[in-house]
Amino acid sequence: MRARGVVVTAIVLLLPLTGPRASVAIKPSVTRAATSDTLRQPTTLRNRSTVPHVVDVDLTAAPAQLRLRPGGPLVRVYAYNGTVPGPTLDVREGDSVVVHFHNELPEVTTVHWHGLHLPANADGSPLFPVAPGSTYVYTFRIPPGYAGTYWYHPHPDARSSYQVSMGLFGAMIVRAPDDPIAALGVPEKLLILSDNRFDANGAISFPDSESIQAEVDLENGREGNVLMVNGQVMPTISMPPGGVQRWRIVNASAARVYRLSLPGGQMIHVGSDGGLFAHGVTVPDIMIANSERVELLVRGGLTPGQRLQFQDLPYDRYMPQTRPADWDSTRALLSVVVSHAPAAQPLRIPPVLRYVPPLDTMHVAERRVIVMSQGLINGRKMDMNRVDLRGHLGTTEIWELQNVVGMDHPFHLHGFRFQVLDRDGVPEPFPSWKDLVNVPKHSSMRIVVRFDDYPGKWMYHCHILDHEDEGMMGVLELN
Ligand SMILES: [Cu+2]
Questions:
Q1: pLDDT above 70 for 15
Q2: Which of 99, 207, 269, 303 counts the most CB atoms within 10 A of its CB?
């Protein structure tokens, strides 16, 4: 995902302020949306701690029977606390988090807290499997400056695609004490994108291991023909005329890359994996690779009764041999309905949303080249007993990610957020915090990462879950 267009603090009804931080002084100016949405928000994990800044929750992964499609049958799924998507972990910067995780699945799993900076034994990597019937306590502290949208999902050896497809995924929101958009009173929505495939009986369908479809899934990553937002097919969001909402979007699909667009509306891209940018950027559409997150300010429309469609536009990430026949279709995700409520007042966006300090690239301990070919990283498949890269705490590294094949591979590094420096030699327009970046076919990019603390073994891999399961992953050891 690359931010395009011009940096803005205003579009049409969004008026700029003249001075920094002035937003703090103005009253919320957006009429709150009527609650006629059919889009549901996932429940929030209940914090049973009464100690300030301590979040203590229970999370159970177990088989369940759920109705995944309206009017459809109850089908067998895997669920976190009985729901798909799982409940949202909603925390604040500085919180100490304790998750008592219970594995009631008939197989090994883990919970990977995707994008968070935490000790290696709390990362939920395949090096820390949780056996069926056992409990694992994940303990970590949310560092200052990590406000953003994240997600959690299973990351066991070779079974991530299956377990996510069965329903195991949920969001995390880390909130800052001084979030300038929250201060404006802008209504907020969480949108978790997923896709799945169902058989004639409505059950989640997986191909025979010997079938052509299984081979295609291995090559492309598993894609489903049914697209869902928060587990719902084509839900609606209602907004008053001129109303603006903040959407936190998570791509929880195993492999599908979305190019999001809202014809007739407006979108300002204000944040990525690791939270807000310094400035918003108007975008006609925005790409979100699997596991990536985006934050948007979305204005629905001006005319009461108007109906807009939030869409996934075609994007060719495929090899020609296995490119799906319908790859160039536009797919509908949800409807935005402009209500008959009084028109919203203009929203004023502060000129600076957040300071994102660029990482120092002058003092670099190590420069590495990471070559991604089909199913391999630097020519090798993952071996949990091998260390591929060794690095040191207290250092900065620059990694050049090279995709040498004709299909995109989204790259993820565990435990440490990074900044993109350039893509095919073109400098990134502004620094932002990333933990996943899509590396398009036959392209390269450079990222910079700082290893301040937390020794141990960390995964880096392609986040097409089927590629990860097949071993398109390596191990970085820090000491
Ligand atoms: Cu891949």
A1: no
A2: 269
Q: Could you tell me the distance, in angstroms and rounded to a whole number, from the CA of residue 54 to the centre of ligand 1?
A: 37
Question: What are the helix (H) ranges across 82-173?
Answer: 160-165
Which tokens belong to 111? 């919970």
* C-alpha–C-alpha distance, residues 401 and 413, integer Å: 12
**Rounded to whole angstroms, how far apart are CA atoms 108 and 155?**
10
Q: How confident is the model at residue 346 (pLDDT cuts 50, 70, 90)?
A: confident
Q: Name beta bridge partners: 396.
A: 450
When the candidates are 2.30.120.10, 2.60.40.420, 3.30.710.10, 1.10.10.10, the CATH number that belongs to 54-176 is: 2.60.40.420
Question: How far away, in angstroms, is 475 Cα from ligand 1 center?
Answer: 16
Q: How far apart are CA 79 and CA 441, in angstroms?
A: 34
Closest Cα to residue 134, out of 115, 159, 106? Answer: 106
Question: What are the respective helix, strand and coil percentages of the chain, to the nearest 5?
Answer: 5, 45, 50
Distance 411 CA to ligand 1 centre (A): 8
For 35-60, how does the pLDDT look when each residue is reduced to its tens digit (9 = 90+)? 589 999 999 999 999 999 999 999 99
Separation of 111 CA from ligand 1 center, angstroms? 21
Residue 289: alpha-carbon gap to chain centroid:
8
The answer to whether 116 touches 172, Cβ cutoff 8 Å, is yes
Query: Which CATH number is correct for 366-478, 2.60.40.420, 3.40.190.10, 3.40.50.2000, 3.40.920.10?
Result: 2.60.40.420
Confidence of residue 5 (pLDDT cuts 50, 70, 90): very low
Q: Which residue has the tokens 């309206």?
A: 70
Instruction: Calculate how far, in angstroms, residue 463's C-alpha sits from the geometric centre of ligand 1.
Output: 6
Cα separation, 434 vs 293, in Å, equals: 9
- Name 426's Cβ contacts closer than 8 Å, sequence gap at least 6: none
CA 377 to chain centre: 22
CA dihedral 16, 179, 193, 222 (to 10 degrees): 110
pTM of the predicted model as reported, rounded to 2 decimal places:
0.93
pLDDT for residue 71: 83
Angstrom distance (rounded) from CA 282 to CA 275: 17
